[in-house]
Write a structure and sequence with these properties.
Blueprint lengths: L26 E2 L6 E2 L7 E5 H7 L4 H6 L4 E4 L1 E2 L2 E2 L5 E4 L12 E5 L2 E3 L13 E6 L3 H4 L6 E6 L8 E9 L3 E13 L3 E12 L3 E2 L7 E2 L2 E15 L2 E14 L4 E5 L3 E2 L5 E3 L5 E6 L9 E6 L2 E2 L15 H8 L16 E18 L2 E19 L21 E21 L2 E20 L9 E3 L3 E15 L4 E17 L5 E3 L9 E3 L4 E21 L2 E12 L2 E2 L8 H9 L5 E2 L2 E14 L4 E24 L7 E25 L4 E17 L2 H7 L15 E12 L6 E12 L10 E2 L3 E12 L2 E8 L9 E5 L14 E5 L5 E9 L1
Pfam families: Plug (PF07715), TonB_dep_Rec_b-barrel (PF00593)
Membrane topology: Multi-pass membrane protein
Protein name: TonB-dependent receptor
Amino acid sequence: MALGVATPALAAEPAAAAPVEDAGTITVTARKRSEDILKVPVTVTALTAETLAQKGVVSITSLANSTPGININDNSSGHADRSFQQIVIRGFTPSTTLATTTSMFVDGVAVASPSAIMSISDPKQVEVVKGPQSAYYGRNTFAGAINISTKDPTGEWHGSLLGMVGTRNNYRLQGAIEGPIFGDVLTFRVTGERWAKNGSWVNGAAGGGTLGDQKSTTGTATLLFKPAPNFTMKLFGMMMEDRDGPAAQARLYAYDIKGSNGSVIAPSQANCSFQGNTVGVQGQGKSVTNPYICGITPNLAYPVSANVTANDAIRSWLAGGTNRVVSPKEGVDGYGLRRISHHAHTTAEWVINPNITATVLAGYNREVWTTLIDLDGLDTSAIASSTNPKGYWDYPFLIERKTNDWSMEGRLNYKFGRLRGVVGTSFLKAQQYQGLGGGFGPLTSSLLSPGGKSESRTTGMFFGATYEATDKLSASVEGRYQIDWLGAFARPSGQTIQAGYLGPNATTFAGGALITHAKYNNFTPRVIVNYQFNPSFMAYASWAKGVNPAQFNTGILSSTTVVQNAAIAAGGQLSIKPEKVTNYELGIKGKLLDGRLRYTAAAYYAQWKDQINAISIIINDPTSATGTSFQQVSSNTGNVDLYGVEGDFSFKVNDLITLDGAGAINASDIKQFVSTTLSQLTGMYNFSGKEMKNTSKYSANMGILLHGDLGSVADAKWFTRFDWSYKSGMWSNEANILRTPDRHIFNLRGGVSKGNVSVDVFVNNLFNNHTYTSIGDNYAIDNTFAHFGFYSAAVVGLPELRTFGLQLKVKM
């Protein structure tokens, strides 16, 4: 299997001996009960351990590549790295890091960050459920949900060792062992993994090196307790650390960036201009001409480079604890990302009788991450500076976050005659701290701005009831009543809020005091009707409501009165309403040719109301060193219709050849949208008819698997697999003026196995595709700050280039 991809995780079994599985036997838990994937009336993709191995899925990125209708966006606020990875399903692009539209689960237990699911070694199964799942899963399942099931240990001793080496210093070391502690009553499983690689892009700045280096270390432990045939308790724990170098990213500039002698460091690639507006509000401001880049993104016109060599001044600044959200002991000590995650959960299931099963789940997650970026994103050593400790103009910028969440759920699954379903309740408490800051002069703690705690508490009561009216016709009524409480707290050191959001006078709060709070009540129903025409063909129709939690613009509370008033004028009120969606869906599922051909297809139409969008504002601020303040707030400024069709198939042609594929058209139609930032740039105020950003309208993948016995050699098998993944280009913004090219990735892998030993070889990105992986509007930043008031550049993520590798695995 292919293990040399850009991010670690989801490491699967070798594919050499993997059998072709009848998808009709796959069981999923999309409705919190076990159901046949071809009988459940929900759009769900399930990748078993065998399928993960056959496709070489080892990361959240490769999961998206093998699942049409999903994009991964790692581009935010001038950096494209693993600190920020949004999962975009069906075009539901979240505009902010807090407005997540897809939730993640491990063994059905909620996790507030996607980092946890990116680090599970050797999972049992991955389920991607599309469409609003609020009826069962609650907050942040607006577009769908992803659940990773971990493997249960057995009562027999088993183990495995895996080693992989590849080009650009790719390597992976993985081990697992499981066995009995007390017969079959108490068993355990322990895994450990270290993965690392050098980036694909050489840094053209002084100090050299590569951009995109990544390294991850993960350990997991599982205990399974079965004291009786009808009772099972599972405890799972994981510790993970990512230590990445500077990200592989670059900028496309709309203006020349020049050195002190007037020479061009990075040339403008502008090919169009707009009559923008100085304030971005219709009827206000003045007209201004703004150059920009339009059409398909061009190739870079300058070498990839960034000033990312840490000197003593940088290291001393990072070692300081004042105004920090994350302790320096857990933070970065140079440019790049450091993330530490701890996850633990327990699940217990009691089969009370043949008709009733009780399940209890509880989980805890803690994550801290810091990333130090070169904010200007360019080798600026040709710009002289007498104040910068590096001896030339540069802008190091630190971003850090700390999150904690606790969750509990209890439910009863029931079945009485023709009626079956589930009823339950859940609670999730999540806390988050954010901080950021940097500068282009002497580095001091005063440049850092830590935020206070943001907390959400979500209580939900849910139910599902399916009634089989006949042997073929059934109807389901499902729903969830949810109460969201949101609170914003002062910094631990205390905080004075200037006049603005909280009124005409300044207000002082003690450390940790509650500044503001709100509560929202929502009911999210779903109704499904499905008809089983025969044992091999089913059709369904559904109607569902979804809700995304509200937010606060708490980050701007520490700003001056001028800044707060400017944010209010731009539409960024303190309290933001929840987003809501209504989804209509039709689908079919079935199999033909004695089960050798399996297929699913679905069509949907969704109305997204009160969409939360980010608004970036630049304000004249004499208290700032640059004379301006850059702020980002959120507001309910959009209504969007989304619609599309999706389908997949698997066809076992014969014992030698298996074909599988999938495709999706995920279209969007913006009905209403407001963005002062885009209006400043383009002068556009009516975005009706435009499409959503950061998502592919068209996507597809196709795989060919050849496999069989290895001649007359006993217990020996071979396989070869060729995969093609296609994603159409993504818009950088809702004005639809700049788009990445279509992206085609081809992977090839093959191997042989004999008994418990397998050897695989692979090449990822076979044809060395250079297409950008992400895009986001940003700024051309230099010592003049002349182009910092309007979008003046686009940040693009750079792909992993062709990678060769060899893997050996031994099972025991």
